[in-house]
């Protein structure tokens, strides 16, 4: 009996602490004027989970709907202006590269829901994706004659020709109504900007950092440089840090100057401030030495008395 009462009391404490933490986090996020960080964290979690599932052979079964749910959720984020068309096109290129039955179903979901919007946002990239899908469909002898593939190609042509009537179930009225309703729920001071993040940036966020979050460190600029670059172009970036002392370079590292340009500018400004300070110190007379004006007065008095 004592054991059960102790467990019940502990459970109440845990639940109260959890509820307090959730309410405090909600209050902090609600008072934040920028909601971009919330959407970025959610988007990163969904995309990384999608990539993990996409690499699993079990999820490529037609009956498995886990990938469909992730694609539908990402499409919804695109419809509500949380992310831009760049990430959707990156995912579309990933699906085109695999091009199995599951990928065709996911491509069909994207085209039926936001195909016209993607074409409007970036017509050049849409044309490239269209040609890639058609070439993949014609190259596969097993998928070419399947009804699902033919239906996807028909939807693709309907999106290309801007023919809304040939897209089954296409209706943007519900999305427009929800956007209008959300405008009354979101505070006027809270703004959400569209996240222009690529697929590779989200997948490698734990390695390179999150450049889309203000104040977050990012090492993508250094790691994205090709290793096979010529020695002439790499010479300035290697010789530039050697002209500064180790103490200044350590100070630049503590200030998160993660590129050569930032380090050089920081070191130059630091040296300028140091030289100006030393110049001002040398201009001032020592503490135990009288000023020059008093010395001149004493010399003139001695000359007159003589």
Task: Give an account of the 3D structure.
The chain has helices spanning 2-31, 36-54, 66-79, 85-98, 101-121, 123-139, 147-160, 173-185, 199-203, 205-208, 220-223, 231-239, 246-254, 260-283, 292-305. The protein is mainly alpha-helical. The protein starts with a helix and ends with a helix. The chain has two domains: 30-203, Serine Threonine Protein Phosphatase 5, Tetratricopeptide repeat (Alpha Horseshoe); 240-282, no CATH class. The model is unreliable at 1-11 and 223-241 (pLDDT under 50). The chain has 15 helices and no strands. The longest helix has 30 residues, at 2-31. It is 69% helix and 0% strand.
What is the helix tally? 15
The CATH architecture of the largest domain would be Alpha Horseshoe
Shape: elongated
Question: Multimeric state of these chains?
Answer: single chain
Biggest sheet descriptor: none
Radius of gyration, taken over Cα atoms and rounded to an integer in Å: 32 Å
Mean pLDDT: 75
Would you tell me which CATH topology of the largest domain applies? Serine Threonine Protein Phosphatase 5, Tetratricopeptide repeat
- Judged by helices, strands and strand pairing, the structural class is mainly alpha
Total count of domains: 2
Approximate strand percentage: under 5%
Number of E-type strands: 0
Proportion of helical residues? 55-70%
